[in-house]
Amino acid sequence: MSKEHPSVKIMWNEFIKNNNINPKTEYSAWPFGGEEKSANELVELVIRGQKRATASLYEIYEYIGEPLPKAGDYSVVTDWKGVARCVIITTGVEIIPFNLVSEEFARKEGEGDLSLEYWREVHREFFSKELKETSGKEFKEDMPVVCEEFELVFS
Q1: What domain range includes position 131?
Q2: In this structure, is residue 127 part of a structural domain?
Q3: Do residues 126 and 135 touch, judged by C-beta distance below 8 A?
Q4: DSSP β-ladder status, 53-57 and 84-97
Q5: How far is the CA of 67 from the CAs of 62, 84, 117, 146, in angstroms?
Q6: Is the distance from CB of 76 to CB of 126 less than 8 angstroms?
Q7: In this predicted structure, what is the pLDDT of residue 1?
Q8: What is the largest CA-CA distance in the chain?
Q9: CA distance 38 to 97
Q10: CB-based contact 7:145 (threshold 8 Å)
Q11: 97-114 burial code (b ≥16 CB/10 A, e <16)
């Protein structure tokens, strides 16, 4: 990954100062999605309060060796170019097979028409592409999905 945009550290420092958070508290910085248009649209949904969850394939965490998110984790969410837009805190994480993700979770993701059908369609497409690009594997309907809920804490 490229060098972190200076706005990330500025936003993080402002957040911890205004909220009396230990300066040694760790955080990550990242954009949503796999391309510019969706990353920028999704962070706007977070800022508006409509998006309160996100989903990732469990297998991708394993493949790239990244730790799973956990409740209490802070993230600076950026736009596609890496410019800091907001800070979120993870409030819960559940690993669920793709085909068992609930309508309630789909609504919390805040995308499209908020339906489970829409959620499944766009995530099936995204996960299939992501798997093919990273591990060359095929997507399966029962693959475990990391369902992460979060709260906007600063923008």
Answers
A1: 6-154
A2: yes
A3: no
A4: unpaired
A5: 8, 22, 29, 11
A6: no
A7: 45
A8: 46
A9: 24
A10: no
A11: ebeebeeebbbbbbbeee
Dihedral of alpha carbons 126, 129, 99, 55, sign? negative
Q: What are phi and psi of 91, to 5 degrees?
A: -105, -15
Residue 142 lies in a domain: yes
Residue 33's pLDDT is what? 85
What is the spatial distance between Cα 155 and Cα 136, in angstroms, rounded to a whole number? Answer: 37
Tens-binned pLDDT, residue by residue, of the chain (155 aa):
458 999 999 999 999 999 999 999 999 999 998 899 999 999 999 999 999 999 999 999 988 889 999 999 999 999 999 999 999 999 999 999 999 999 999 999 999 999 999 999 999 999 999 999 998 999 999 999 999 999 999 99
| CATH number of the domain bearing residue 103 | 3.10.400.10
Query: Does residue 145 lie in a domain region?
Result: yes
Q: Based on the structure, what is the number of domains in the chain?
A: 1
| Assigned domain for 1 exists | no
